[in-house]
Amino acid sequence: MLTALVYLQALRFAVPAFVMLGTSPCYVATLLVPWRVISAILPTRWYHAVDDVMYSCYQRMVVFFYEHYTGLEVVLYGDVDCLEKKENVIYICNHQSTIDWIVSDLVSIRQGSLGHLRYVLKDGLKYFPLYGAYFAMHGGVYVKRSGQFKTDTFTKRLEKFPKHNIPLWLVIFPEGTRYNPELPDVIKKSQGFAYSSGLTVLNQVLTPRVKATAASLHELRNYIDAVYDCTIAYEWKDENFQRKPGPGMTDFLTGCCSRVHVHIRRVKVEDVPVDTNECRQWLHDAFEEKDIMLEDFYSNDPNVQGRLPGEGQRSPLSLMQTVPALIFWSGLLTAFLATEKGRSAYWKSLVFGTLGGCLLMAATT
Hints:
Elements: H1 2-22, H2 24-38, H3 44-69, E1 73-78, E2 89-93, H4 100-108, E3 117-122, H5 131-138, E4 141-143, H6 151-158, H7 160-164, E5 169-172, H8 184-196, H9 211-220, E6 226-236, H10 249-253, E7 257-268, H11 276-297, E8 313-314, H12 323-337, H13 340-363
Parallel strand pairs: 1-7, 2-5, 2-6, 3-4, 3-5
Antiparallel strand pairs: 1-8, 6-7
Helix pairs in contact: 2-3, 2-13, 3-12, 5-13, 6-9
């Protein structure tokens, strides 16, 4: 019986992982490459308008698995009403898990802006098979570590959004490195930097880095409607709110995380300082607030434990938002794998798409 349960648990993770990752060659072969070729003679705005629809369709399948399949409950706090109207925003958030980017899916889909997500990503991820090149094509920006950050290159890649009026949710994790309570040396190093810089020492988040945020605000200040300052807390089923490493893909898909709590603070653009040093202090103040929120969330005080400031609103998502995309991508994957020609096209898309993507990213470095 125990062996059977282990196999079922493994299967519970393997099936959605296979569908989500396995559909990427189908995406490349049937949608991405053909549209990229056709759109070469069309305005940039047109390419992104269709690409956003395709990306939204794919991410809706991802949301199905991470929310509906797992039974995850999303609880929102703060300026939740900002999700009632589409906006161009810079989305900044604490970083503790590879799942944090999925949470931006969960938030943006509730505004109808899922296809508009673009990420500021670590430079090493640009060579990830298929996804690395595609995220750049979709509008994501790869950056190197703080000491190697090139402001001019970074802002140049953001110019096209206001220039071509492309809808935008620019997602930035200012900490850069994920917060992990089991890596005390990383935390101490971050705290040491804050102390030497005359900044408040933080315990539940890492000291945020300002360069990407400040450069984004400088380039997009007249284009975005607001900054969404978000704080994420994960609720595990078996831990009584004890702080532990953020849940990974396996944890999520096997249902180990029962709720995700998200506090949203909508900040007017004019309330964010223009000067980089002032922006650094503003960003650090924002993360100091996150530090307090998470200290309370993981505390033993029953008055604040397990929730973020304000009244939490459970935010159920209709199955119609995700199931049609699941059916489409599952059907497309099945169609590819069901025939010999389909399987041949599938593997060629995977191999040549990966090689072509790596060459493209190497050429644009």
